[in-house]
Amino acid sequence: MTDEPDINAVDLSNCDREPIHLLGRIQPFGYLVAVSMDWMVQHVSANLGEIVGRAAEDCLGLPLQEILPGSSIHAIRDRLQGLAPGEGSERIFGIDLFGHGQRFDLAVSISGHSIVIEAEPFVPSPINSGTLVKTMIGRIERCSTLGALYNEAVRQLRAVTGFDRVMLYRFAPDGSGNVIGESARSGLEPFLGLNYPATDIPAQARRLYVKNRSRIIADVNGDTIPVVPGIDPHGEVLDLSLSVTRAVSPIHIEYLSNMGVGASFSISIVIGGELWGLFALHHYAPRRLSMELRSTLELFGQIVALVIEGRRAKEMREVEEAARELHDKVVGRLVSTSPSPDELVDFAGDFREMIPSDGFAVWSEGHVRSVGTCPFADDMPGLARFLNRAAASRVYATDEISAVYPKADEFAHRAAGLLAIPISRTPRDYLIFFRRELVETVTWAGDPSQKETTFGPNGPRLTPRKSFEAWQETVRGRSAPWTASERKSAEALRVAIMEVLLRFNEESQRLRDVASQRQELLIAELNHRVRNILALIRAVVLQSRGSASSIGDFATIIGGRIQALARAHDQITDSAFAARSLEDLVRTEAQAYVGEKAGRFMLTGPPILVNAEAFSTIALVVHEMVTNSAKYGALSDSLGVVNVDWRIDDNACCTIDWRESGGPPVQAPSRRGFGSAIIERSIPHELGGEATLSWRLTGLEARFVLPSNVVSLGTSNAAPSPPPAPKVPPTEAIAGLTALLVEDNMIMALDAEQFLLDGGIARVFTAMSLSDAMRIVMEEHIDVAMLDVNLGNETSFPLIEPLNQKGVPYVFATGYGETLTLPDEAAPGTPSIKKPYSAATVMEMLARVAKRTGD
User: Fold this and answer.
1) How confident is the model at residue 747 (pLDDT cuts 50, 70, 90)?
2) Quick one: pLDDT at residue 4?
3) What is the DSSP letter of 720?
4) Sign of the CA dihedral with 234 first, then 235, 241, and 247 last
5) In whole angstroms, what is the distance from residue 608 CA to residue 818 CA?
6) How many angstroms separate the Cα of 293 from the Cα of each of 12, 219, 811?
7) What is the Cα–Cα distance from 242 to 247, expressed in whole angstroms?
8) Is the pLDDT of residue 79 over 80?
9) Is residue 308 within a helix (H) or strand (E), and if so which, with residue range?
10) Residue 287 reports pLDDT greater than 70
11) What's the Rg (C-alpha) of the chain?
C-alpha cells in the first residue's frame, strides 16, 4: 500500500474481499462509507444498514459489492478520476445508490489511505442550480460599492435558504471579527456592527474553514453517531476534515445553544488562500438544506470571494495610481533639489500628502527636526534606539507604539502610532510619520473576557460565552491603522530617498573634491601673485631710489607708485575683475596726484574699456605721466593744460595722444631713469603695443598704441634718471657670459636684467613671450638662461628641448613656490628660484649651473 493513492488505477472489482466497518460521529441524516485505497471496504455508518434493510451490526464484514450495485460503484469511480488527497470532494446528485429506487446525493473525497463516500437522501430542487447562481451573481455584480455588495449577498442567501438570520462576518488580522453585513427576519436583535473576539472561532477552526468551504448543522440538538471502530486497519484515525456530514465540536454546539440557534450553515470566503470572512446563517429551529443547494451556495461563496477580491484590487489600484502620481511629483522635486537629510523636513507637506499623518519628523545624526504633532525632542533618542532594533532596510509601522515600546505611554496622547522609513544604515537615520491617539468605542457581542472553567470527564476546560448582549469597550493608546497602500507608498519613498541621498552624497563628494582642487589652485595662484607683487614692489623700491634727492622725496615717489598700483587694483576688483573705463582710470590718477589741478586735464574720445589684465600696467604708466607733468611739465605751473585724446584706428587698435601745452619749456632728459623706462617699455613689453615720446619746447607729446586684444590707454614723460644701483661683485663662473632672460613682467624683467649685468654678465637678451624667447635661442649665442615659468597663458617649458640641444644651462623662476613640478625633459638637478628673488640668489644659481656645465 502506497502513501499516495493512484487514482487512475481505481478498481472496485476486489471490493468483495474486504469487510465493512462502522463509522460514527456523523449527523443522523447522513450516511458514510470509508473504503481503503486498495479498494477494501473499511467503514459504514450504522444508519446505512437501515437503508439496505439490515441491522447495523449485520453490515460488518460484508463486501461493498453486496451493499452498492455496480452502477453506483462505476459512478463513484468516475468522480474519483479528478480528485487528489485533501482537495475537496466531488458530488453526485440524485443517484439510485442501492438500486431500490431511492435516490441519494453523494459526496466523494480522499482522506489519507481511504476514500470517503457520504450519502444523503435526495431532495428535489424546483430551481436549476446553474440558473440560481447566475441570477444571484448578476444581482451582486450590479452593486456599485462593496458595502452594497455585502448587503445584497446576505439578502439573497436568506431569500434562497429561508434561514432566520444571515450575516457576513469579516476577520481582522488579530483573528477577531466584525459583522459587516446582515439580513434578519423582523423581531430579531440586529448583530450588524458587533465585534467578536478571536477566541470565538479558534485558529484551528479557521484553518478548517479554509479547507472545507461549507458546513451544515441541521439540528444543534440532534444526536451524533460515534465512529466504530476508532481507527482504520493502518492504526490511524480517519480524517474527516472534508466530510460534509460530520458532526462538529461539542463546544461549538454549546456556543450555538447559548445563542439560541437551532441550525446553522456557513460558507467560507477565501481570498488569496487566506480566510477573509464567512457567511454565517442561523435558524432558530432545526433546518436542513439539500447537498445540491449547499453545493450551489458554496459555489456562490467562491464567486463572491472573487468579486470582492476584484473590487478590492481595483480600489487598491486606484489608490496606488494616485499615490504613484503624487510620489512621482514629490520625487521629481527631490531630484531637482538634491536635499541633505536635514533638509528633508522641508518636504514634510509633500510627504504627509502621500502618507497622511498628524506629525512628521526627520531624525538625522542624533538630531530631530519635526513638523506637526510629534513626541517631544527629549523622547526621540530613546525612540530612535528602539527603531534601531528593526530591520535596517524595511519600513516599520505600528498603530500602537506602547505595545512594543512601553515608554511610549508617556507621549501616547501626542503620538500613538508611527511609520518609520530608514534612510541610512550607519548612523541610522529615519523619516518618521506620527498619528495621534484615536479613542474608539468598540461594541462586542458580549463581554469577550467572559469565560468560565468547568470540569468534565477530561478535566478542566473553558466554556463558551453565555451572554451575547452588546458590550462596549473604550480602546485607547492606538491610532488609525496604516493601510497596505500607505506602507507601499512608504517603501517606494524609502527607495527614492535612498537614491536621492546617494546622489546628494556623490554630488557633495564631487563638490568637495572640486572645492579642494580649487582651494589648492587658489593657494598656489595666491602664492604666485604674492611673490610677484613682492618682487614688483622690491623692483619699484630699488629702481626709484635714484629719482629722489632725499629720504622724504624717496618715500613720496615710492608711495605714489604703490598707490597707483593699489588704485588700479581697487578699480578692477570693484567690478569683479571686469574691464574698466579708460577715462575713469586717467581721471582717478589725475585727482589722486594733482588734486585741484585735475580740471586742467582735457579728455576726449569714444568710450573705451581697458581689460582687467592690463589695468595695472596702464595705471602705472598714467601715474608716471601725471607725476612727470606735475614736476616738470604743463602741470608744474598755474597755466598749463594736458590734452588726452584717443580713438580706434583701422586695425581696431586704440591710439592715445598725450599733449601738454601752456607750461614751462620742456627738454629731453639727459639720463633715462626708472620712470622713463616704465613709460617707454611697459606697453610694448607687457601688452604688445607701441609707445612714442616727443620732447618739444611747448610741452611733452606722446603716442601710445594699444593692441585690439587690450584696448587700453597710457602715456608718460621721463623723469631724471636715477643713479645706478650698487653692483653685486661679479661671479667668476658667469663673468663675460651671454644670458637669456625670459620674464613677462616688465618691471621684474628690468630688475633681473640689472642683477645679471651687475653680476658680471656681458650681455642680456630679454624676452617677454615664448615666441620671442624661442627666436633668441635659435638666432643668438646663449651661455645661460633664466626662465620665468608662467608667461601669461603659456609657460616656458617648451624652451627646455632647444636649450638642452644647445647645451645651455638654465634656472627657472616661479611665484608658485613649492608647487612647481618640472617636466621630465628638464635637466637633472635644474634649480628653481622663488619670487621675490635677490641678486645674490640669482647669481648663485646661475653660477652653479654654469659651473656644472663647464665641468
Assistant:
1) confident
2) 35
3) P
4) positive
5) 40
6) 30, 17, 111
7) 12
8) yes
9) helix 291-337
10) yes
11) 54
- Is residue 712 within 8 A of residue 614, CB to CB? The reply is yes
Q: Exposure of 607 by Cβ count < 10 A (0-12 exposed, 13-18 middle, 19+ buried)? A: exposed
Q: How far apart are CA 683 and CA 705, in angstroms?
A: 8
Better-scored residue on pLDDT, 32 or 783 = 783
Nine-digit cell at 263? Answer: 441550525
Judged on CB neighbours under 10 Å (0-12, 13-18, 19+), 514 is exposed
Q: Which amino acid appears at position 548 of this protein?
A: A
264: β partners:
217, 282
144 exposed, middle or buried (CB, 10 Å; 0-12, 13-18, 19+)?
A: exposed
Main-chain phi, psi angles of 155, to 5 degrees: -65, -45
pTM over cut 0.70: no
What per-residue confidence (pLDDT) applies to 752? 84
Structural domains in the chain, sorted by start: 7-121 (3.30.450.20), 129-220+261-314 (3.30.450.40), 333-440+475-506 (3.30.450.270), 549-706 (3.30.565.10), 738-854 (3.40.50.2300)
Helix axes 291-337, 484-544, angle to 10 degrees: 10
Round to whole Å and give the CA distance between 645 and 604: 5
Q: At which residue does the C-alpha cell 648663485 appear?
A: 844
What's the CA gap between 9 and 500, in Å, rounded? Answer: 63
Q: Can you tell me the distance from the alpha carbon of 202 to that of 219, in angstroms, rounded to the nearest whole number? A: 22
CA 364, CA 431: separation in Å to the nearest integer?
A: 9
Q: Which residues touch 187 (CB under 8 Å, ≥6 apart)? A: none
Q: What is the model's pLDDT at position 833? A: 83
Q: Please, what is the average pLDDT of the chain? A: 76
Residue 161: the pLDDT is 92
Instruction: Name the nearest CA neighbour of 214 among 309, 300, 92.
Output: 300
Instruction: Write out the DSSP string of 571-611.
Output: HHHHTTS--EEHHHHHHHHHHHHHGGGGGGEEEESS--EE-
Residue 354, SS3 per DSSP: helix
Tens digit of pLDDT for each residue in 518-572? 666 556 545 544 554 565 566 556 656 665 667 666 666 666 656 655 555 554 4
Position 819 pLDDT exceeds 50:
yes
For residue 181, how many other CB atoms are within 10 A of its CB? 23
Q: Model confidence over 602-623: pLDDT tens digits?
A: 889 898 888 877 877 887 788 7
Q: Which grid coordinates belong to 428?
A: 541610522
- pLDDT band at residue 738 using 50, 70 and 90 as cut-offs: very high
Q: In the chain, how many H helices and how many E strands?
A: 19, 35
The answer to whether the CB of 32 falls within 8 A of the CB of 67 is no
Distance CA(821)–CA(819), nearest Å, equals 6
- Decide if 543 contacts 751 (C-beta within 8 A): yes
C-alpha cell at 145: 460599492
pLDDT at 434 over 80: yes
